[in-house]
Amino acid sequence: MESKTIGHLTLHPTNRKPLLKSQQSSSALPIVGHQTHPTTSSSGNEDASLTFIGNATTLLEWRGVRLLTDPNFLHAGDHVHLGPGVTATRLKDPHVDLHQLPPLDAILLSHYHEDHFDKLVEDSLNRDFDIISTPHAKRELSGKPEPFSAVHALEPFESLVLGIPSDGNTEKSVIKVTATPGKHVPPGFLEKANDLLGAVPPTNGWMLELGHANTATAADGKDGDVQTGYRIYISGDTLLVDDLKEIPARLKDEKIDLMLVHLGGTTIPGPKMPLLMVTMDAKQGLQLMRLMDPDVTIPIHFDDYDVFLSSLDEFKGEVKGSEFEKRVVYLDRGEQYRFKVRGE
Length: 344
Description:
Blueprint: E1 4-10, E2 33-35, E3 48-54, E4 57-62, E5 65-69, E6 79-83, E7 86-89, E8 106-108, H1 119-124, E9 131-133, H2 135-142, E10 151-153, E11 158-164, E12 171-180, H3 189-197, E13 205-214, H4 215-219, E14 227-234, H5 246-251, E15 258-262, E16 267-270, E17 273-277, H6 282-292, E18 296-300, H7 312-319, E19 335-339
Parallel strand pairs: 1-11, 2-19, 5-8, 8-9, 9-10, 14-15, 15-18
Antiparallel strand pairs: 3-4, 3-19, 4-5, 6-7, 11-12, 12-13, 13-14, 16-17
Helix pairs in contact: 6-7
């Protein structure tokens, strides 16, 4: 996808930074089952996977690299602060606890909100662990009394290329991470008021392009030779807004292989007073699928908190009978979606 690459980060899967201040001991994430492409028979040669842990927390694995999205490891009954006078109660436990994660390489944080980066996570993480997020999140995290020192900020359509070391080959594996637009508050007066008050933080989505690059070109800080073998779009906590139309415009004739859509119809200040919806509901989820036209969609972020008022069943009802009915994969917590990266 057309973007501006502002940096490169080399990952070291054989020599990782510890995720936690107290080193975790798990070597692999327990899996309760797996699925593959919903309309194509599995050939058994899938070489990458995405595991649903809960809420917007997933684990992407490819070529020995592990990327975690939006770490939220509170338990049912725990509370998070979402803005002035706004709290939410968690309803479901995550698949695993934070200390049960395997060693990781980086975190993709869509925005600095407690249901995506909770206080347990914030207090437990090593301060030099690599986090890719928004400029707002970088300011917040680097300004802590015990500051985070490895937060990489991306504005929409800026990219960070993650390199996976090769064994002297002319090509190396890369994951190009591009920030995409998102609006957590409806455009107009409310958005302008929020900009002044800072009640709801700015958010990114992500485009992840898994592929290969010429090692010499990549070393020169250029990414024009990145050959994408699989493309994943993660919507982040956004409403269906006009800004999103720039994503398919920049993709041109390129396709999205997998889309993770944040649903839930998150409504604040809460279920007893549902005044403002700040994430997509079931109807908007289907509209986003029509805008992006992904090959496969996986819904996430739909039932973990009491402020989610649009259920997964509502989304299933919207999708039923549509052109996307057979192109959606529904993952339980701990279940894995496996896929093949082209060019491997």
